[in-house]
């Protein structure tokens, strides 16, 4: 008999596998799996990219490659997301589990699509397979938050990243960089885990950023493409032709959306539907960030607090009061990053919506 603590430990292993797929699986979710029998790991796997085998099939292939194919019967598979039960670009994972003769399936998060949610349970139980769900559910739901947002709202999950001085400024006098080297690497890790980076035209004109992944905390998979670089501006002609986003080797990954008088959800819907973006990172200036917050289109905030006082003239949130009601950061974490402190949390209204 496997204890709840043991189930949780094995699910943590599956989550470690899922993290390997962050930023490379969109429009599919990052999912990880581990197959266990009598305390022995038979196989590990994670979903690499859309159109390729899902985590369950990758773990099965790994087990067979290790020479454990004969031991798959009566084994348990731990998977971070409910196994798929319908044909898409790949066959149903429930079929593979049944064919392997597994005795038990343990998953963390249910399918966010109500058309499929819980369907795997019935299919597997009809074949005599024990099913347990909800193990480390919150952690597993966190892993697929971008995918779930797309299923439910038809838009990507939006992470806003902002670095500021103690007195709430976005710039320092006579210095290009505000945050330290460690925080810059953290920002590059965020880019590696996202599908697109969004900025305003003013950021391109003033800073000429590259918006590429160069020095992340962890090396992304070899097949990870540079994120889409989305520039919102009133007029494309106002952007310098020599800007790095137009002239570097990744220029084909730059998208300019002009005549944007109102952000609205439609902008994000276009990015989601046309470019397969599950998670978008905002690295914009204070004015555009303020607009995203006003329209409640920021789902998560990463705020890098630097030790400087008396920064430059650009305010993090310029102007007077601008929110119709207060927002609050939930699920907060503080991260010490060199000389900086990073506050990260989910953005929610005071009413909890």
UniProtKB/TrEMBL annotation:
Ranges for domain CMP/dCMP-type deaminase come to: 5-121
Provide the binding site for NADP(+). Answer: 163, 177, 207
List membrane-spanning regions: none
Q: Where is the active site?
A: 56
Catalyzed reaction equations = 5-amino-6-(5-phospho-D-ribitylamino)uracil + NADP(+) = 5-amino-6-(5-phospho-D-ribosylamino)uracil + NADPH + H(+); 2,5-diamino-6-hydroxy-4-(5-phosphoribosylamino)-pyrimidine + H2O + H(+) = 5-amino-6-(5-phospho-D-ribosylamino)uracil + NH4(+)
Record keywords, A-Z: Hydrolase, Metal-binding, Multifunctional enzyme, NADP, Oxidoreductase, Riboflavin biosynthesis, Zinc
* Recorded metabolic or biological pathway in which this protein acts: Cofactor biosynthesis; riboflavin biosynthesis; 5-amino-6-(D-ribitylamino)uracil from GTP: step 3/4; Cofactor biosynthesis; riboflavin biosynthesis; 5-amino-6-(D-ribitylamino)uracil from GTP: step 2/4
Enzyme Commission (EC) number: 3.5.4.26, 1.1.1.193
Enumerate the InterPro entries for this protein.
Answer: APOBEC/CMP_deaminase_Zn-bd, CMP_dCMP_dom, Cytidine_deaminase-like, DHFR-like_dom_sf, Eubact_RibD, RibDG_C, Riboflavin_Biosynth_HTPR
Q: Which Pfam families match?
A: dCMP_cyt_deam_1, RibD_C
Q: Which cofactor does it need?
A: Zn(2+)
Q: Name one GO biological process term.
A: riboflavin biosynthetic process
User: Is Translocase among this UniProt entry's keywords?
Assistant: no
What Gene3D superfamilies does the database record attribute to this sequence?
Cytidine Deaminase, domain 2, Dihydrofolate Reductase, subunit A
Question: Where does the chain bind substrate?
Answer: 191, 203, 211, 214, 283
Query: What GO molecular function annotation could you give as one example from this UniProt entry?
Result: diaminohydroxyphosphoribosylaminopyrimidine deaminase activity
Which residues are recorded as binding Zn(2+)? 54, 84, 93
Per the entry, the cofactor note is: Binds 1 zinc ion.
Q: Which PANTHER family match?
A: 2,5-DIAMINO-6-RIBOSYLAMINO-4(3H)-PYRIMIDINONE 5'-PHOSPHATE REDUCTASE, DIHYDROFOLATE REDUCTASE FAMILY PROTEIN (AFU_ORTHOLOGUE AFUA_8G06820)
Provide the family line.
In the C-terminal section; belongs to the HTP reductase family.
Query: What's this protein's function?
Result: Converts 2,5-diamino-6-(ribosylamino)-4(3h)-pyrimidinone 5'-phosphate into 5-amino-6-(ribosylamino)-2,4(1h,3h)-pyrimidinedione 5'-phosphate.
Q: What is this protein called?
A: Riboflavin biosynthesis protein RibD
């Amino acid at each position: 008999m496997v204890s709840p603590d043991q189930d949780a430990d094995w699910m943590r292993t599956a989550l470690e596998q899922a993290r390997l797929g962050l930023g490379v699986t969109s429009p599919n979710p990052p999912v990880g799996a581990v197959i266990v029998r009598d305390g022995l790991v038979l196989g590990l796997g994670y979903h690499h990219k859309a159109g390729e085998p899902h985590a369950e099939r990758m773990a099965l292939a790994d087990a067979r490659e290790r020479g454990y194919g004969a031991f798959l019967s009566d084994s348990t598979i731990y998977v971070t997301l409910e196994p798929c039960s319908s044909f898409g670009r790949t066959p149903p994972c429930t079929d593979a589990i049944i064919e392997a003769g597994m005795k038990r399936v343990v998953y963390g998060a249910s399918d966010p699509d109500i058309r499929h949610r819980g369907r795997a349970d019935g299919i597997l139980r009809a074949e005599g397979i024990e099913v347990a769900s909800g193990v480390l559910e919150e952690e597993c739901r966190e892993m697929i938050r971008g995918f779930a947002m797309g299923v439910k709202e038809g838009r990507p999950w939006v992470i806003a990243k902002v670095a500021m001085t103690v007195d709430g400024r976005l710039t320092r006098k006579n210095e290009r960089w505000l945050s330290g080297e460690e925080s810059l690497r953290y920002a590059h890790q965020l880019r590696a885990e996202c599908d697109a980076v969004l900025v305003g035209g003013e950021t391109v004109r003033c800073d000429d950023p590259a918006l590429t992944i160069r020095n992340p905390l962890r090396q992304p998979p070899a097949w990870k493409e540079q994120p889409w670089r989305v520039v919102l501006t009133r007029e494309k002609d106002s952007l310098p032709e020599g800007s790095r986003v137009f002239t570097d080797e990744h220029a084909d990954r730059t998208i300019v959306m002009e005549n944007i008088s109102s952000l609205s959800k439609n902008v994000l819907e276009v990015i989601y539907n046309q470019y397969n973006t599950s998670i978008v990172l905002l690295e914009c200036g204070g004015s555009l960030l303020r607009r995203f917050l006003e329209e409640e289109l920021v789902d998560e905030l990463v705020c890098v607090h630097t030790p400087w006082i008396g920064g430059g003239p650009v305010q993090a949130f310029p102007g007077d009061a601008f929110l119709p009601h207060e927002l609050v950061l939930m699920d907060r974490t503080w991260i010490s990053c060199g000389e900086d402190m990073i506050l990260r949390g989910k953005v929610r209204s005071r009413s909890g919506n």
